[in-house]
Amino acid sequence: MEKTTSPFSTLGLSDALSAATEALGYTRPTPIQQQAIPAVLFGKDLLGIARTGSGKTASYALPILQRLEEERWVLQNRHVPVLVLVPTRELAVQVESMFKELSTGLSDRPKVMAVFGGVSINPQMIGMQGVQVLIATPGRVLDLIGSKAVHLAEVKMLVLDEADKMLDLGFKEEMDRILALLPRKRQNLLFSATLSNAVNEITQVVLHKPEVVQVTDEPQEVQLIHQRAFRVAPERKGPFLRYLIRSMDMQQVLVFTSTSQAADHVADKLSKHGLEAEAVHGKKSNHARQSALSRFKAGKLRVLVATDLLSRGIDIAFLPYVINYDLPRSPKDYVHRIGRTGRAERSGEAFTIVTPDDQPHFKVIQKKMKQWLTLEGTEDVDLHGV
Ligand code: AMP
User: Fold this and answer.
1) N or C of the chain: less Cβ packing under 10 Å?
2) CATH number for the segment(s) 9-214
């Protein structure tokens, strides 16, 4: 048989795994995959500076699957060889499905499981038997260890995904406790969208002579996004939001607010005015979040209203519209929010509502982004009956 020349196999991946990338429609590796896959296959530690949308999940899932096939680690009962720590349930679910999709064609499919808080622990405890890739939020994995459902003393490969976000969400102490339970000799992969001092500290502790891969595709991606900003009086924000959605006939739009309460309020108002909307934020049950997210992804829910907690990790291949109903706190959050659109080399549109009080802060955001938008006046827009 002729040897396959898939661009993925040239990185050292097996034919079965290269075929899996093809089945997912990947024609070529993304920059982070190009650099990370050979290094991880080689057994090196890795520091990946990349965010969601860069293809980072497959950049570690593919070589991990291959190493599992090659090494065939035989471990004691309830010991996992691969641990992936993630900050949120949403990311846990996405990473799990990526591992599952990529391993469909393997003759010996590893057992992959995602665990996170907010749901009953019992099924997770029972399901832990024979797990080879455990994807977990820090708190829940500690609970499972506490009840002896899983042991980490034989972990061969550790991934810290979105390490910056784990620190932002206050998981430092849990991470330290988990690290203390791992064997000294292991391979470590750490991914972070940013390199703050806090992330730096963790990389010093965790990584040993890492290969550093930095993907700086953000500006280019952001340029794909058509951005507009509107000056709106605070009391006209709600009607103006409805006006935007209706006048542009947006059928799938992600709206960001600054707080959970605001998200609920905005979603309620939209629904009352006949625009089907749901809010997702940290205070919603896991089930409610997952169900809203999947209906939104499937195009069955017109408006999803979210807080910044969810601005990363929402993996939607392409979203035509993002609206910032409230300004994000930081320029970084602005990039993450609008980065939900304009992915996969398609252009999307991002709109920002700016009240007169918001203007100084919006200037700061634009300065950091080195992008200047003309603030469009909306005083003349007739908002009756929207
Ligand atoms: P991630 O950065 O891991 O969240 O991936 C973002 C999206 O890119 C996911 O929907 C992946 O399925 C997709 N993706 C990953 N690698 C590739 C690739 N080489 N070509 C096209 N799409 C990809």
Assistant:
1) N
2) 3.40.50.300
